[in-house]
Amino acid sequence: MASKFQNRLVGTIILVAIGIIVLPDVLDGKKTHYKEEIASIPLKPELDSDLESFEVLDPIDDSQSLPQSPVEVVTVEDEVVSDQDSLPAVIKEVPERNEYQDSAWIIQLAALKNADNAKVLVNDLQKRGYQAHTKLENGFTRVIIGPDVSQSKLERQIIELEKITGSKGQLLKFKPLNP
């Protein structure tokens, strides 16, 4: 048979367990439960009864009247003589000019023989926010920063790049047709 001590111990454990389970609910008072309002998404959206209507326009006739016979153009010292036109038209030679030739600048930072070292340097500079590229030329891999239209901005970057890499860059004009 169980001793008095064991009976008291079991009774105490039961009372403590009931106290732990029931008393917080009894003493807590009225609980406020918060529920999120959930809006369900309809499987098929409701369509408005008013349908949009589009007006189809008639096509515009943009054909030009073409000559019946082929036109032959002959160039004679800045003049064009046409079979159909009796008046010669003057051709004015316009020199081809690259407007972007003087508008951008680049920094040539280094010319390395090892292409892997150049790629590592370019990746490091790109992580730091510089517009860095490589260019393979005559067995060397050139590390180039830019192009940029602001010469003064690139001049400031040369000083920053010298602190980062230890090599002094050279400011050059950017030639877009032959970089």
Please describe what this structure looks like.
- This protein is of the alpha+beta class and 179 residues long.
- It has a domain at 105-173: Sporulation related repeat (Alpha-Beta Plaits), CATH 3.30.70.
- Helix content is 30%, strand content 21%.
- It has 3 helices and 7 strands.
- It has helices at residues 4-28, 115-127, 151-165; strands spanning 73-76, 79-82, 89-90, 105-112, 132-137, 140-148, 170-173.
- It has a 4-stranded antiparallel sheet with strand order 5-6-4-7, with helices on one face.
- The radius of gyration is 42 Å and the shape is flat.
Query: In terms of quaternary structure, what is this?
Result: single chain
* Main sheet summary: 4 strands, antiparallel
The number of helical runs is 3
State the secondary-structure class: alpha+beta
Broad shape: flat
Tally the beta strands: 7
User: Mind telling me the CATH superfamily name of one domain?
Assistant: Sporulation related repeat
Averaging pLDDT over every residue, what do you get?
77
Would you identify the regions where 5 or more consecutive residues have pLDDT less than 50? Answer: 78-83
CATH class of one domain: Alpha Beta
Residues in helices, as a percent range: 25-40%
> Kindly, what is the distance between the CA atoms of the first and last residues, rounded to a whole number of angstroms?
102 Å
User: CATH topology of one domain, which one?
Assistant: Alpha-Beta Plaits
**Lateral arrangement of strands in the main beta sheet:** 5-6-4-7
- The arrangement of helices and strands along the chain is HEEEEHEEHE
CATH architecture heading of one domain: 2-Layer Sandwich
Please report which band the strand proportion falls in: under 5%, 5-15%, 15-25%, 25-35%, 35-45% or over 45%. 15-25%
Radius of gyration: 42 Å
Organism: Vibrio galatheae
GO molecular function: peptidoglycan binding
InterPro entries: Cell_div_SPOR-domain, SPOR-like_dom, SPOR-like_sf
Protein name: DedD
